[in-house]
C-alpha cells in the first residue's frame, strides 16, 4: 500500500549501539524506580503553604503564586494532578494568582519491615474502630495507624484506609485466593449468565461473565512490584554480527530482532516515565530468542515465581508454556501483539491488547449501522449494502458475522426504550461465481453502495479494488475492509482514496497530537531515531499496565473492564470473554482514506 506518509522519517544514527548499550546497563541493574520509604517525594515551600486538619485528614493549604501550574504544584508536593483536581474541582479550569487550594498530604510508609510491603484497601463502615479492624485483619492497631499517618482524628465512615498485610495473613489466606477477607456468600457477586459460544473458529465466548467472587473494596498494593518483560531480542546473534563487522561496513541488525528492539525502546520510555511518577518496580528483561527451550529455562529462574506481571512473550509459539506457569503461580500476564482469542480460553489471568478480527468485524457492523442503516443516519433509505466474499470459508464466516451483528444492532431499543422494526436489506455476492458481473448486478446507480469485503487474501483484494475503481465513475461507493489491508503493499493510494476505503484498526497514531509530538521528540533525543509503531506499542502497553498495577495492585484483572484508558496509538477498553477466560481489548478505530492518508472516523477515549 503506497501513501504519502504523515509520520516523521527515520533519523540516521547508530541505533544498535544505543539500544544494546542501554539494554545491557538496564539488564545488569534490573532495578528502576526503587526508592527508600524515607525518600522525599516533594520539597514543600513553607512560605506559601501550611498544614491544616480538614474533616479528620491532613492537607497542605497552598496559595497559588505567579506562574504556578497544577503540574508544577503536584511535583512540589509529591501528589498527582488528579488528586489536586479532586479536592479542588474548579482548578481544572486553571489557577489564579492568590487562589487558595488544599492538597492532600501524601501517605508515607514509615516502616516497610512492619508492614511487609503489602496492603489491603478497606472502606470504613459506620461504627468501625481501629480495634475492630485490627481483630478482623489480625494486625495491630499500631500498624494500621502507621499505614495511615494522615488520619489524626479517628476513623470516619465511607473513607478508605490501608490495612497492612502480615506474613501470617498471607499464609492463612494462601488457599483462599483472595487474600485479606473470608468468603461471605451474602456479599459475593456471582454472574451465572450462560456464555454464548460463537461458531467462529477464533471466537470463544461473546458474553462477559464476572468473577465468581469479587470484592471491590479490597485492593492489595505493594511498595515494590516485580515485572518481567520477555522479548525475542536475539542479543547473542546481534553481538556476533557486530563483532564480525568491519569499521567501514554498514551496521546491520538481525532482522528478526527489529520488532522486539523497537518494542523495548518504547517500553523503556514508559518505565522511565513511571519512575518519575514515583512508581517503584523491579524490571527483569529476558531475551527469549523466540525459542521454547530458552523460555523453559528462563521460567526455572528463582525470581519468576514472585513476578506480579509478565509482559510477553510476543509470539504464540512461546506463549503457552508461560501462560501455564503464570496460571499456576497466579501471576497476571499480558500479550501485546497476538490477536487470536484462543489464547484467552481458560486463562483468567491473561489479557491481550490486540482485538481479534471478529471483534473488528463487529465494530465495523456497528459503524455501518450508525452511519447508514439507523433511522438517525442521513439517507438511510438510499444506502445499498453489498457484502462480497471469494467463496473462502473464513470469509463466509466473517460475512455472516457482519450480518448477524448488523441485525443485532437493528433490534436494539432506541433512546426511548422502544424497539423499532427495521427491515434490513443487503446482498451477498460470491465473487468466485461470476466475478465482476455478479458484483455489478448488485450495485445501484441511484443509491450509495456500501461494500463490505471481509477478506484477508491480498491477491483477491487487490484485484477487486482495481475492478471497483474502474467502475467508480458509474457508481457511488464506499468500501470497507479488514485491519490487514493496511499492510498490503500492492494497493494503490489513489484507488483507496477514490473508493472511500475504510479499514478497522486496533491502532491509530495522530502525529499532530501534542502527546505524540512530545513522545516523538523525547524518543528521538534518546535513541537518535523516530519511534516505529512497535515503539508506540511498547510505550502504550507498559504505561497502561504499570499504571494499573500502581492503582489496583497485582490482582488487577477483574478491574480491567472498568478502566478505559487513552494511549498514544491504542486505546484500551477490555471485556472478559466468558467465565474462567481472559480479557480482550475491544477498542477498534475505523480509519478512512482522506487526502491520501488514513484519518480516524471514530471517537477516542479522553
Describe the structure.
- With 606 residues, this protein is an alpha/beta fold.
- Helix content is 33%, strand content 16%.
- It has four domains: 14-39 and 109-117 and 165-354 and 509-584, Response regulator (Rossmann fold), CATH 3.40.50; 49-104, Membrane-bound Lytic Murein Transglycosylase D, Chain A (Roll); 118-164, LysM domain (Membrane-bound Lytic Murein Transglycosylase D, Chain A), CATH 3.10.350; 358-505, Rossmann fold (3-Layer(aba) Sandwich).
- The protein has helices spanning 15-29, 70-77, 81-87, 112-115, 130-137, 141-147, 167-172, 235-244, 258-276, 292-298, 319-328, 357-373, 393-410, 431-434, 436-442, 458-470, 493-498, 514-527, 533-552, and strands at 49-54, 57-63, 100-104, 118-123, 160-164, 221-222, 225-231, 281-287, 309-311, 332-335, 350-352, 383-389, 426-430, 448-452, 476-480, 502-505, 574-576, 583-585, 589-594, 597-600.
- The strands form five sheets. It has a seven-stranded mixed sheet, with helices on both faces. It has a four-stranded parallel sheet with strand order 13-12-14-15, sandwiched between helices. It has a three-stranded antiparallel sheet with strand order 1-2-3.
